[in-house]
Amino acid sequence: MPRWAELATVRAVERWLLPGECLICHAGLGAEPHDPLICSACRNRWTPLPEPRCDRCGQPLTPGMDCRLCVGWPGELRGVASAVWLDAGARRAVHLFKYEGWWRVGEVLAATIRRVAPPPPGSTLVPIPLGATRLRTRGYNQSAALAEALGKLLDLPVASGAIRRRRETITQTALTPEERRANLSGAFEPAGSPPSRPVLVDDVFTTGATLAEAALALLGGGAPAVSAVTFARAERPLANAAAALDPGVPLF
Question: What Rg value do the Cα atoms of the chain yield, rounded?
């Protein structure tokens, strides 16, 4: 992934090689500012999560009913937020970002997080580490690209090496929530002292298993508390729709 200082050259090459059209609807970008790759009309169709929400995991709640999603989470993992639902348009954006090499779409996703669900001031952003095999295949870690873009927008530090993968995990798309937790159990470990006020960053929240395991690694390294932010969240009754990003391709 190019350095931020090289982005002007990268964008100039993109504009020369490719038509100035939205990657989702293919409409012309016209006078869109900041060369966004995804037009404002498509971005405005992304649906923010409604209130009320669980103040711990950010899941929208039915009034009068307690949240059951985060019951098994470590107690120090709180303040998890997602910007939008993983509906068709948001799903397409994530697919472009993760599987089609459009790492700069992360800037668009980060801008949405900044507008809808920004981390608090003073946070240190911690991307979810990618396994070595998937990193070689994909060419970059989409969580790190998202964290770097968000950090640039909010002037927050990014601690990409705060945790690391202890082992590879199998594809998550066909697994139940219980199987996801088992698959990820012990998958991360701390890598040195944890940053102050760590906020985990990932592209999609499906069951929360990845965030919970990554939080355990930070807590094991000495962090007193952990929060997290993601661009999108799969609706609980339709969480497996996240697999539609690409059948047979791991979501995490």
Answer: 17
**3-state percent breakdown (helix, strand, coil) of the chain, nearest 5:** 35, 15, 45
Q: What is the pLDDT averaged over residues 70-76?
A: 91
Strands 188-190 and 163-165: antiparallel
Specify the residue for token string 């906020």: 199
CATH 2.40.10 assigned to 46-245? no
The predicted-structure confidence for 25-71, as pLDDT tens digits, reads as follows 998 876 666 667 999 999 999 999 999 999 999 999 988 888 989 98
The DSSP code sequence of 95-160 is HHHHHSS-TTHHHHHHHHHHHHSPPPTT-EEEEPPPPHHHHHHHSS-HHHHHHHHHHHHHT--B-T
Alpha-carbon span 61 to 63, nearest angstrom = 6
> Which pTM value belongs to this model?
0.82
Q: Under a CB-based contact definition with an 8 Å cutoff, are residues 215 and 67 in contact?
A: no
pLDDT at residue 221, rounded to an integer: 94
Q: Domain locations in the chain? A: 1-45, 46-245
Q: Name, in order, each residue with C-beta under 8 angstroms of 145's C-beta and a sequence gap of 6 or more.
A: 1, 97, 103, 106
The 3-state DSSP class for residue 172 equals coil
In this predicted structure, the answer to whether residue 112 has a pLDDT above a threshold of 70 is yes
Q: Collapsing DSSP states into helix, strand and coil, what is residue 43?
A: helix
